[in-house]
Design a protein that fits this description.
about 110 residues; alpha+beta; 2 helices; 7 strands; about 20% helix; about 30% strand
């Protein structure tokens, strides 16, 4: 049995979909039903299969980092990336093998919160 990762609207990856796409809305009885992205309301918990989300582009990643909250430091000697929160002045995620992996992890973390 695997764990199903859900998001609570308005957080999550729904914004990457066209308005006519279908996601799975979690009902009060614990079952899922089809729901259009446009029909989601604040507080709705939904599941979106990984296959329907378009992959992130480098432009998406650069735009995210361009917001200025995070700093990614790459260490060529150790071949790792660490992410620092510029507001808290601390390392929040570390030991990634590439810049892309580091930014994707950070974007995933922000989408879940």
């Amino acid at each position: 049995m695997s764990i199903i990762k859900t998001s609570t609207f308005p957080k999550g990856k729904h914004h990457q979909l066209k308005q006519g796409e279908i996601v799975q809305l979690l009902q009060a009885n614990g079952r899922f039903r089809d729901c259009y992205v446009t029909d989601l309301m604040d507080g709705d918990e939904y599941y979106m299969p990984e296959g329907i989300v378009p992959p992130r582009t480098d432009a998406d990643r650069v735009a995210f980092i361009g917001k200025g909250r995070y700093d990614i430091q790459f260490s060529p000697a150790m071949e790792t990336c660490d992410i620092y929160d510029n507001y808290a002045k601390e390392c929040i995620l570390g030991d990634f093998g590439s810049w892309t992996e580091a930014v994707d992890a950070l974007m995933d973390l922000e989408e879940q919160s």
